[in-house]
What does this fold into?
Amino acid sequence: MVGGAALLAAVVVIAGSCRQDASETSDAVEEVSDSIETIDPVALETLPEGFDADKVELGRKSYVVCSVCHGLDGHGTALGPSLRDTTWIDITGTAPEIAQVIRDGVANPREFPSPMPVMGGGEFGEEELDALVAYVQALSRS
Ligand code: HEC
It folds into this structure.
């Protein structure tokens, strides 16, 4: 899984450099969020009842880190499972479980060849984590 690791490293490096110098990389940031708008509007369009649109939107922005393995549309890749089907591998799909998986990662995946890193390899505060959980739940129900 060298390819996946390299890709993930690249995303982390890009994310890191965005934080350090927002002015130089603002175009790149815009490109990423634009592509997410285009590729995956479904979760917002079919937002299940009771979901806060602003929170889900914040989660969607953080999800770029996750998309390396779970796909920009959440349907999964060779490196990570779909988050949009009704079946879960490690959990039953409740918010606390999703938060726990993101916090801890998955050291020993059952169906995939390499682990999910802690926080998916990203750095998220409580608010972002909470938003990610809402986004994943919205995805899984849309
Ligand atoms: C390097 C690849 C990778 C990245 C990046 C990654 N994941 Fe994962 N994820 C996995 C793997 C592998 C599993 C475990 C699947 C298994 O047990 O076979 C998993 C499992 C999950 C699960 C449980 C799925 C289930 O069916 O039980 C959730 C939810 C999840 N990831 C969310 C996220 C979120 C949110 C992010 C971003 C913050 C993220 N992941 C980033 C690879 C990744």
